[in-house]
Predict the 3D structure of the following.
Amino acid sequence: MKKIKITEETKKDILSNLLKRNPNQYGKYQEAVDSILKDVRENGEKAVFEYTEKFDGFKLTKENFKVTKEEIDNAYALVDSELVEIIKRSKANIVKYHEKQVRQSFFDAEEPGKLLGQRITPLERVGVYVPGGKASYPSTVLMDVLPAFVAGVKDIIVCTPCNKDGLVNPVTLVAASIAGATEIYKCGGAQAIAAMAYGIESMKKVDKIVGPGNIYVALAKKAVYGYVNIDSIAGPSEILVLADETANPKFVAADLLSQAEHDELASSILVTTSSKLADDVSTEVEKFTEVLSRKGIIEKSLENYGYLLVADNMEDAISVVNEIASEHLEIITKDPWDTMTKVRNAGAIFLGEYSSEPLGDYFAGPNHTLPTNGTARFFSPLSVDDFIKKSSVIFYSKDALKEVKDDIVAFAKSEGLTAHANSISVRFE
């Protein structure tokens, strides 16, 4: 990890380096993604099946495309029963947290003959993309499906790759079943995004697509935005730890590495007012890295995007935190609650030395689908709000409209829209 003294110049260099990880920078993949999207849009499930055979080595048909109840039952038999119970306990925490986000419609009759309101309805059908490959991510299944479930979405479909034998990771299936997914399909990559966005013979189109994926998935989601809604263009994972001299360097090092192991583009940053803490953390990082299973990935991640940033004071440290706007922010200071009040930009905030980032990844309840690459400046974590839509409601009686009709007519005429004006005045001729 690079130890750097914070100045205006070094801050600019760091921000510029971090932004290189943005999926929008990988234009060389866009042509391939666009070709897949066009093919699926024109040829439907035939194209999806062909890409699945090409990339995943399994020949899909109408009969085996959708995961069956028998396959889900078999998955339960393959997953350790204790893990099943852990997934259920995690679900309970996630549901409890997200139920507090549920909004109600409102109607306000301030004056006689006038009622204004907002009607909230859930989306009808959403698609959740779940990465496949060698690893399984049941926590991501829960975090993406459950807010939609709590919001009241009727159809929640999951798309995830299968292996060359046509089998989906059993833990993924169990998590999707527990979370309340209504349909699960065996397809991944850009072709899965296209199928959900445009609809194919064996799968109706969705209203919104959520969930992480590789660069092809990220660019495909960006390209179909407008045909459907999406959650965000997810970039590589990142963690920023804001700490002072009171922090335990072993804890800080362990937390930084929890994100570095994700992939070589992951970012792990310590911002501290203590040069000694930075040195001690560096030592602990080296010790941990030697014994961790994903050593190669961790070393590459830290080499490219690992920083130990030393600030003159906490004010400068917090300024850097707000500039970076990290996906995960841990605050390990003498008074983390006070420090938090000065932080404006972060996806999720973890307070104190026992609130480590994996607590949020798996179990606490708040969503772990978070804004990355500085987008925490204007984006929020995935929530129930992502799965609802709002309609304005307006009612005026004749007497209520009569009081304001002249104002509306004058306003419309000022814009040269005489048909608008006539729509009001005709009611009082």
User: Anything to note?
Assistant: The chain has a mean pLDDT of 94. The radius of gyration is 25 Å. Residues 345 and 378 are 8 Å apart (CA to CA). The first strand starts at residue 2 and ends at 5.
